[in-house]
């Protein structure tokens, strides 16, 4: 959501001495002027970007209930609900916003994003189709790529992903999505390259690391990639590689990887222990 602030110039005026006798309420009332609006806008931005998701939901729900005519507050509530993983609740708010006279094109993009999170792909596509082609943004093309993926329109998906990557300085997530798209198509080598690119932009993006292990395992390479990882991440990635090996019939490789994952994990690795026990039980049976 965007806030367009108009800074109102303040002119200092020398008042007569009699002004000292004015009621103090005049000073108090100044708190409701333009500077207070600016402070509120800053607070809204902070709540949307920095606050804990549930805290942001509570803030905007309270603010919107007190000012139901404020579309900006309803936008904040819808966006914070999505951040909190409550897209089902956000959809109703976004729908009301796009149907109002105060709707802007970005609202349709945000509405489409919430619909995708609920699995309503056709409705999301319909909303994106109503966005003018002149509105070119990272978020718009990222969602267009995801819809094209869902429709298995691979050429369109690749084109949208490529455009989205070029419209942001932080492309890690969209590169990861693009890589996963290539992975599902069986283009493992290309997927591996895209996951590596994603990690180069965000070394902490674990989903890209996990997907990278899957892409390598699909090619019969079960060694962990040379990327930055914590001890716990290493154990989890070994577990992923082990399960991939077992699914591909490489049970001995899988067993060795599970044992290494259990040994590597800094705590008790219950999932790996269960998988190894199940594998040994199956072999004995």
From TrEMBL:
It comes from the Bacteria. The keyword DNA damage does not apply. TPR repeats lie at residues 172-205. Pfam families: TPR_16 (PF13432), TPR_19 (PF14559). This is Flp pilus assembly protein TadD. InterPro entries: TPR-like_helical_dom_sf (IPR011990), TPR_rpt (IPR019734). Keywords: TPR repeat. It comes from Roseicyclus marinus.
